[in-house]
Amino acid sequence: MAVAFDANLTTAPTVEDSSGTTVARATVAAAAAGARIFCLVGWDDTTVTLASVAGGGLTWTVHVQALAGANRHVAIASAHAPSGLASATTITATFSATAAGARTMAMFSMTGLVTGTTPVGTASSTTGTTTWSGGTIAGVGSGDAVVGFGKTILDAGTATPDTGYTEVHDFSASVRTHESVYRITAAAGSFTPGGTWSVAGSDTLGVAVAFAVLAGAPPQYLRPDGTTSAGLWVAVGAATLHASISEAAASDAEYAESAEATATADAFKVTTTNATDPLVSTGHIVRYRLGKNTAAGDAVQVTVRLKQGTTVIASWVRTVPDSATTYTETLTAAQADSITDYTLLDLEFEGVKI
Questions:
Q1: N or C: which end of the chain has fewer CB within 10 A?
Q2: What is the chain's pLDDT, residue by residue, as a tens digit (354 residues)?
Q3: Is 295 in the same domain as 160?
Q4: What is the pTM assigned to this prediction?
Q5: Residue 104 is part of which domain span?
Q6: Are residues 20 and 151 in the same domain?
Q7: Does residue 335 fall inside a structural domain?
Q8: One domain for residues 267 and 326
Q9: How far apart are CA 53 and CA 60, in angstroms?
Q10: CA-angle at 123, arms to 121 and 125, nearest 5°
């Protein structure tokens, strides 16, 4: 699954220029299942640090934070959201003590990143007046994501992201200007997120984090594990229809057999073992074997349907050959993406004389 930007979860960040032990924001959009939520926090204080981030039932990690000048701070935290994150979910950042002011938070989400808490790397920088930098992260792979967050003392300023980076947030309040950016790398290397302020600021600083693209997970095999409807089909060589077609290696000693084919369609349906969402749109394959008990004779057609509940995810129509033949069907990306629950997948086989 390629890395992609998912959603801006705080489209109009604000700055609370008052003291407090926390800063909280409610998301204004939903994040997709499997997304990584990036939480960008800023505050002013000489010694107070970002202690934790919480909300949405997620496990948050504070990856990097930095101090510039006497009391300017920024930080990046993130969390993997296996089931996504609903709109209007409140996320709260808690400081180590009461922060003096300029408390702010911005969030966005990206998909296709690793699910663990360890990033490829982090960096920070406290140099620059007309520009900001998040520092340089080495060892970033092709297709990975690099995220940066910068801040300066500048009233009503704006920012322009460096070449190759996409801006998510650009906001100014209480004489502080902030910018967040991201980049999905096209090649491996070292990367330095940053931007340029509209006019020179002071106490400029930035932080950065990089996360790797989600590698291919081990394959999951869903096999028939229950019969929900049998029609006129019977199991041969096994006690149940689902057991007759569930072997890991095809065996023609066990199979599901239809009644003598007629012009009236007849179907049976089986449930399959549960799987987790692989978070990729490729490699979804359905395999089955079809054959007749006698050569020649009536022509029979079988429609195979992959279903989630009552929804047909994909279907294939085959004319049954004289001898047993294996068919391999690959779902399109759109069909794979239409699966929302890998614990509710069924297979239906419908035969009819043609």
A1: C
A2: 578 999 999 988 888 889 999 999 999 999 999 999 999 999 999 899 999 999 999 999 999 999 998 799 999 999 999 999 999 999 999 999 999 999 999 999 999 898 889 999 999 999 888 999 999 999 999 999 999 999 998 877 899 999 999 999 999 877 889 999 999 999 999 999 999 999 888 889 899 999 988 766 568 899 999 999 999 999 999 999 999 999 988 889 999 999 887 789 999 999 999 998 877 777 899 999 999 887 777 889 999 999 999 999 999 999 999 999 999 999 998 999 999 999 999 999 999 998
A3: no
A4: 0.65
A5: 4-211
A6: yes
A7: yes
A8: yes
A9: 6
A10: 170
